[in-house]
Amino acid sequence: MKPSLIINGAAGRMGRRVISMAAESEAFNIIAAVDIATHPDIGKDAGLLAGIGEIGVNITSEYPETADVMIDFSLPQATDATVEYCAKNGIALILATTGLTDSQLKSLKNAAGKIPIVYATNLSVGMNVLFATVGKVAKMLGEDYDIEITEAHHRFKKDSPSGTALSLAQAIAEETDRKYPDCLVHGRQGTDALRKKGTIGMHAIRAGDITGQHSVIYSALGETVTISHNAHNRDNFARGAVRAAKWVIDKEPSLYSMKNVLGIE
Q: Is 157 designated active site?
């Protein structure tokens, strides 16, 4: 029997792609597609909303009694209830919500003592390879290279910088013994804005319908090395979520990352 899947934030842009990718994978029985009670698409067939035809599951604001795994692409305001529900009912969780508070991260770690949780600021396979790489590159290049991170997203994204950009910075800081987040400089302004040695510049762009672009720039006097990732659409995030959901089934309670899912050392 296929494992049962709940998709939370199902009526949103990412939720719809997860519905499509999960159905395409044929690995799960989608039993619930959940969103906030005030969403205008409540009651509509989730498959029709995702553009794949009817699947017999309507968008609802109610969680089912139980399931094997949940993929959550909702908002931070919903995270506490989501984590509590999954922990109480023994449901594995793939959490891709960014902008969580320290308190929410603490609750997530506590819940991971009861259920397996994969938490990732970015579920793209390619981006997680970058997470595993950018710190090593910074360490090899050495202190003479200034480091700047740029990220661009669509005009509707609320949090800034992106969780992905912060994860890139954190990976660099950990590998190069910088103090995070104190080493971050968010943009520059004024007549005396020279960069300080050892800092990591962080720059956010919000425009149009940009899906997601991230670059790490390492520059010294004489040369520049740039590592970039461009998301062509949302499908890579959705496929990563489905891949993580397949992996997490029957895992022991713990807080996992996409490094665990992908077997990255």
A: yes
